[in-house]
Amino acid sequence: xxxxxxxxxxxxxxxxxxxxxxxxxxxxxxxxxxxxxxxxxxxxxxxxxxxxxxxxxxxxxxxxxxxxxxxxxxxxxxxxxxxxxxxxxxxxxxxxxxxxxxxxxxxxxxxxxxxxxxxxxxxxxxxxxxxxxxxxxxx
Length: 139
Prior knowledge:
By secondary structure, the chain is mainly β. The chain is 5% helix and 56% strand. The protein is built from 1 helix and 9 strands; from the N terminus they run E-E-E-H-E-E-E-E-E-E. Strands 1, 2, 3, 4, 5, 6, 7, 8 and 9 form a 9-stranded antiparallel sheet that branches. It is globular and about 45 Å long.
């Protein structure tokens, strides 16, 4: 899914292959996400202070269900790209042979599932943990 974000910080891992971005959503929520690509590409796209549209997806995710808590929120407890999200499972779709789940939380988030629990009932309250990644971000 695409989101409009304002870039706060860009941190390369130093290997010229990936890094981390700190950004703010339109509702002022601070998020952290990884990108995979060269430092030069990232510096051209993720300019600090610039507002851009970026496609984000939860990857390497684990789902706990049913989750009795009815809160809907996404947090970054370690101040890095690892997130914990709670909310309602809205849909399960297949895109390019990948099963993607859609969570309704403090913002809607598509994510994969390491265990591919496609038997998770829609409308279930679930807890998802994983990493937030930019997808298809280069021109």
